[in-house]
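Below is a concrete protein record.
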Amino acid sequence: MTLPQRLRQLEEAAPRLYARWSPAAWRAACEGPALRLWESLSAAGDDGEGFDDFLLLLREAVGLQYLAATGAEELAAPSLAAQGLLAAALGDAVPRLLPALRPEERARALAAVWNVGERLRAQPAWIDRFLAVRLAELTDLGDLAPFLEKALAEGLDPGEPSRWKGPFAARSLDPSRAIRSFLPGPMHLAAPAVVCVHDRRATTHVGVLLRPGRNGGSLLLGATPCLGVGDGAAGVPVPARAAPQVVAAAGLSEEQARIATRGGFALLSSPLSQRLWAVEAAA
């Protein structure tokens, strides 16, 4: 059976299996991630082991509306992450990484992707969205579970209580790389080290992971729906004695908004810039 015949066979059966089947989303998935995986497996010169399993999961994801993209822009990695880990995995990580696995490992890896993605949908929304964004960093599909555990631990780590002593190190983050017109506005913590930043003019959001410089520094997580407010994720005030140093480290003359964590991180914005500044206290 040729690839077009197999895709047509799967599509024809879908409306009987899924009450909210989307032909447009299925066509986009076939023309995007499915075609990329097919071409990668063909280039690798193996027998395409795992491809049919992937198609079945892809159809299930479309049928259950885990993957609802209907165009190429929505199938780009940042947009996929906003739909959750399963969308990010099936739309990007699997086509990118599955061919590198040995043929006998692929079915197990695909099952692991699906199982973890479904479990995450029962967790607080920020966890699914946060891990979906981090999935772009995954380099080995066989290491999915330990990778996600490490990423989640970073988001949940409040760090030791800071004394807010210098020197203070600042890192500039540019949300316009994820959303061109983004203007930072209100901020809140979704987790001890994860900030959700709202656009002050629109209903768009970006996420930021606040982490020590020794671990790679703070990271812009890209566009996401609002991550919500997580348990135990209350911000703290920067001590008055340290506040001028925090602002100076960011090189700002005035602030639009600021949020800080007990671990000695502050995230600041300016009314005159699209950028964010993550400032880390030394102790």
